[in-house]
Specification:
With 335 residues, this protein is of the alpha/beta class. Helices cover 42% and strands 17% of the residues. The chain has a domain of 222 residues: Rossmann fold (3-Layer(aba) Sandwich), CATH 3.40.50.720. It has eleven helices and 14 strands. Strand 5, helix 6 and strand 6 form a beta-alpha-beta unit. The protein is globular.
Length: 335
């Protein structure tokens, strides 16, 4: 059985579906700080049954011990974390306490339960402002905000743990920009308040929830002047976690791979693709650059193919079509 921390969140819920599709049994642990309980109801038909669920916090050692005692867990996929870059600058202590302390409590509980297989949700933010693209796993590491530092610090903790206790099997998965939604339109990204990420904002403009998109910077050294990112369909990303679990079952040690498409997409490319998928206009206005944003960032995904046998299968059009289906459903449910 797999323990999925943060399993009712955006990436966690989609990975739960991928686990079910691959025949894995799992239990979700989530404190519902940034997700809704009704995700479990919507996961039920997608997973074949309502997932086992424990409401609790990874920082609570007693809760973790109870979960490991109650369920025959053999591996953990660890998503539970605060994840907004801007908020991390405003609330650094909350980010360090939640993301680092939470991971330490989880590792200690795993050790007590003799569970030594972990897939960790890291991020391309650990590359800071890359000197060149595409980005390989051996590029220099740095961070430009507290959120990025929490990911980098946990990566170091896991490297040190792997070196000192070789029985651990650990994957550090460096995501690029997850977007889209499950093709059913039943689960997707559901930010509370103003979205931090581009696609949910674009989707809310398309559905009429917001008047226009602000594009931060139109003077970058990119083909159309807007920022370029590696957008990856969340179901491709979810399947990457299953591939990482399978890889760790075959070979122990520390595995570090990028999960991305290897393709750079600009903000205006994304807007055009979303207009095509939705049949709706997405009005936008170019404003000043946002501090800390980099011009271009995309992955070299070759190592993931080599080590995991994994590559992305869904293109930008499908990312937009699936996100639009989810956004349309969400708007209808709220009406």
């Amino acid at each position: 059985m797999i323990l999925v921390t943060g399993g009712t969140g955006f990436i966690g819920s989609h990975t739960s579906v991928a686990l079910a599709n691959a025949g894995h049994d799992f239990v979700i642990l989530d404190n519902l700080a940034n997700s809704q309980r009704d995700v479990l109801d919507r996961l039920a038909p997608l997973c074949g049954k309502r997932p086992a669920f424990v409401e609790g916090d990874v920082r609570d050692a007693a809760t973790l011990d109870r979960v490991f005692a109650q369920y025959p867990i053999r591996a953990v996929i660890h998503f539970a974390a605060l994840k907004a870059v801007g908020e991390s600058v405003q609330k650094p202590l909350a980010y360090y306490e939640n993301n680092i302390t939470g991971t330490l409590r989880l590792l200690e509980a795993m050790r007590r339960a003799a569970v030594h297989t972990l897939v960790f949700s890291s991020s391309a933010t650990v590359y800071g402002d890359p000197a060149s693209v595409p980005i390989r796993e051996d590029f220099p590491l740095s961070a430009t905000n507290p959120y990025g530092w929490t990911k980098l610090m946990v990566e170091q903790i896991l490297a040190d743990l792997s070196k000192s206790e070789p029985q651990w099997r650990i994957a550090r998965l460096r995501y690029f920009n997850p977007v889209g939604a499950h093709e059913s339109g039943q689960i997707g990204e559901d930010p509370s308040g103003i979205p931090n990420n581009l696609m949910p904002y674009v989707a809310q403009v398309a559905v009429g929830q917001r008047p226009q998109l602000q594009v931060f910077g139109g003077d970058y050294p990119t083909p159309d002047g807007t920022g370029v990112r590696d957008y990856i369909h969340v179901m491709d990303l979810a399947e990457g976690h299953v591939a990482a679990l399978d890889s760790l079952a075959r070979e122990p040690g520390l595995l570090t791979v990028n999960l991305g498409t290897g393709l750079g997409v600009s903000v205006l490319d994304m807007v055009a693709a979303f207009e095509k998928a939705s049949g709706r206009p997405v009005p936008y206005r170019i404003v000043d650059r946002r501090p800390g944003d980099v011009a271009a960032c995309w992955a070299d995904p070759a190592l993931a193919l080599q080590r995991l046998g994994w590559r992305t299968r869904r293109d930008l059009d499908q990312m937009c079509a699936d996100a639009w289906r989810w956004q349309s459903n969400r708007a209808a449910w709220s009406a």
